[in-house]
Amino acid sequence: MKTIRVIGGIYILSAMWCMLNVSVSSAALGFGFTQPFAQVEYFSVYGGLQLGLGLAMLAVSFSPKALLGGVLFAFVFSSVLAVIRLLAIVLYSANDMMWALFVLEAIIALTLWRCWYRLNLIS
């Protein structure tokens, strides 16, 4: 399914940005590292988690048997990201980057819900 591949690609591109430009990407998100090993955590969580999710989405997009469950998993995961980001924005305030990420995550979550719903109707 093309939509899942595009969303997976977005997560992979985001992972690459985080892993290849740790100082730039972390500064854009408001991080200031006090210890060098904190970059390890950022690299592995922001880069690794997004890379894993993106690759998983690509994998399920090529497997008809795994597609419905994979899309549901991605929908739940992406929805939680958007909801938690919105909660954090309400609790702690936000800059334009945080709002942009929330909008992107909400669009991804809604798109994944739509894909899951359509796949569910077919099966």
Secondary structure: elements and pairs:
Layout: H1 2-20, H2 22-28, H3 38-61, H4 64-92, H5 96-122
Helix pairs in contact: 1-2, 1-3, 3-4, 4-5
In round numbers, the mean pLDDT is 95
Categorize the overall geometry. Answer: globular
Taking the alpha carbons of the first and last residues, their distance comes to: 14 Å
SSE succession: HHHHH
Please tell me how large the radius of gyration is. Answer: 15 Å
Protein described:
The chain is mainly α and 123 residues long. It has one domain (2-122). Helix content is 86%, strand content 0%. The chain contains five helices and no strands. α4 runs antiparallel to α5. The model has no long low-confidence stretch (mean pLDDT 95).
Keywords, separated by commas or semicolons:
globular, 123 residues, mainly alpha, 5 helices, 0% strand
What's the short story on this structure?
The chain is built from 5 helices and no strands.
